[in-house]
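REQUEST ID: PR-0412
SUBMITTED BY: lab tech R.K.
PRIORITY: routine
TASK: structure prediction, single protein chain
INPUT:
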Amino acid sequence: MEEALKAAAYRCEAVLCLVSPGSLDSKYCQAEFQLAKWLGKRIFGLIVEPVPQERIPVEITAEWQLCELVGADRLREFEVEVLGQPAQVAFREAGLDLLRRGSKKPPRAPANPRFCVPDCSRDSCATI
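STATUS: complete
OUTPUT:
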């Protein structure tokens, strides 16, 4: 699995880092972030669970703007499938707009127009 994640990091143009208490505690997620940073990838930090600002490492906040997708603001709902069952998820419109604007900026070094999305809600990351 580790080799597959490294290969995906080399191929992709940008990495979406899902920020949650679990991802901040995961050595795998931190390693994925460091690899993306080392490779010069565009990194989008997406806060997907409430996290106190002081818990987010300076390495993430110093260079990258975070898009907060949770909160009490106006939400945009989406129909999704989770484990084969229909479900609804909602994200802050302001966070989605910030992500949209950031994704339109030209990449530093175009490689492949795919996004690698590490799922760091568990103790290990999986690129989906």
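NOTES: Confidence is low (pLDDT under 50) at residues 110-116, 121-128.
REVIEWED BY: pending
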